[in-house]
Amino acid sequence: DAYANLRSLARPTDDYVSRGLADRITRHLERDPALEEHRRAHDRLVRDGVRVVMLGLRVENRAVIDPVGFFVEVIDTLVERLGAVRVVVDGHDARPGGGMYESHGEHIATRGLVEAEEEILEALRRHYAGREDVTLASTIGESMAVTAFWCARSLLFTAMFAQPTPMVGLKSQGLTEYFS
């Protein structure tokens, strides 16, 4: 109804990351020697014809009551349409030198956001245990280079609250979206 009445569900801004800046950031992060294991894993997925998709947890800003159920439905739909998928679950990144990046409003949260992310990831792992068409990986607690690596190689990135947007030229909800 909102779209039919020419209403936007997102506040338009002039904040954006240009393709050139996104490319420079990606090139810089791609030089991280810690990515070698991830490169090998991605090469195996490509060789086996497995598509990579990313799911952004965004637990601090969600509009979904049952995040596990939401992601199960998303994953099942992707498997139905694409076949085997590697689902990379994107959460909070680690800071260089230790600790995690803090999200807006995290200081008032009643529990740790990384803990909530890990709970969702573990529930998804239990749900898909034994399935050969769904493998799960995580960037929770990984470096920003790891997150950017998988995002740059993903067919799509989806989160629980953000509108689907082209990743360059429009405001995104988090840094990882800039690399899609």
Layout of helices and strands:
Blueprint: H1 19-30, H2 36-48, E1 51-56, H3 67-82, E2 85-90, H4 113-128, E3 134-138, H5 144-152, E4 156-159
Largest β-sheet summary: 4 strands, parallel
| Rg (C-alpha, Å) | 17 Å
- Measured by DSSP, the beta-strand proportion falls in 5-15%
Shape verdict: globular
- DSSP helical segment count: 5
| Straight-line N-to-C gap | 29 Å
User: Which H/E pattern describes the elements?
Assistant: HHEHEHEHE
Q: List the uncertain runs.
A: 162-180
Biggest β-sheet: strands ordered side by side in the sheet: 3-2-1-4
Strands, total number: 4
Nearest-integer average pLDDT: 77
Structural class: alpha/beta
Commentary on this structure:
The chain has 180 residues and is of the alpha/beta class. Helices cover 37% and strands 12% of the residues. It has a four-stranded parallel sheet, with helices on both faces. Helix 3 links the parallel strand 1 and strand 2. The longest helix has 16 residues. It starts with 18 loop residues before the first helix and ends in a 21-residue tail after the last strand.
Key structural traits:
single chain, 180 residues, alpha/beta, four-stranded parallel beta sheet, globular, disordered C terminus
In short:
This protein has 180 residues and is α/β, with parallel strands linked by helices. The protein contains five helices and four strands; from the N terminus they run ααβαβαβαβ.
